[in-house]
Amino acid sequence: MRIGILGTGSMATALGGAWVRAGHQVLVGGRDTRAAAATAARIGATGHGSLAEAAAHGEAVLMALPADAAPRSAQELAPLLAGRTLLDCTVPMAPGPYGPSLTTTGGTDSVAIRIATAAPDAHVAKVFGICHESIWTLPQPSFEGAPLAVPFCADAAAATDLTTRLITSMGCTPLPCGGLSRAALLEATAVLAIGVWWSGGEARHAFPAPALAPGAVDDEP
């Protein structure tokens, strides 16, 4: 698969490296092409260039720019992103009195929706934002004997199919979470989890799998 990466930071590096290991053709793009060249060399990418060149390269394009800048960049690149799957891994957060806070309004408002509005002919998927970037440096992430589940939201069937194939190629399990209107839930979950980690806690301990006692009945909600 051809994948263009918009950005040169930690998520671009971690996910780009994972995709190179999975055999995909990755081109790293940045506003600073020297930074793009350095990131591409670090992960063994196919090449590097400008944001526009990365947008034009991929069947899939990763939006790995700051959350507040992502919609504006999507609008600038909209003609090049048309018909492509745009993977949004951004997390809209800012420091708050009790840890990081969400910078969108919640509900159905999300960076993913703003990106989709800015680039209406792209197929946006909200994905890869829940985990810390270090997780993507593992060869095949698995925990407690099971492959990592990767939640995502998308409207277009093409985006769902490509995102599913990409996650599977990384040795992970796709976890569809509905349409793009539910992307705000993933963004809020990421901010909550980051706050828990920063406070020294472990977010996964708050979400154990349901377990029925012997003889219990699994009632439908």
TrEMBL record:
| Record has Oxidoreductase as a keyword | yes
What are the alphabetically sorted keywords of the record? Oxidoreductase
**Top-level lineage group:** Bacteria
For the Pyrroline-5-carboxylate reductase catalytic N-terminal domain, which residue ranges apply? 2-92
Gene3D superfamilies xref list: NAD(P)-binding Rossmann-like Domain (3.40.50.720)
Q: Please verify whether the record's keywords include Membrane.
A: no
Which Pfam families does the protein's record reference? F420_oxidored (PF03807)
Coiled-coil parts of chain = none
What the entry lists under InterPro entries is as follows: NAD(P)-bd_dom_sf, P5C_Rdtase_cat_N, STEAP_metalloreductase
PANTHER family documented for this protein: DUDULIN-RELATED (PTHR14239), REDUCTASE (PTHR14239:SF10)
Q: What is this protein called?
A: NAD(P)-binding domain-containing protein
Organism whose genome encodes this protein: Streptomyces roseolus
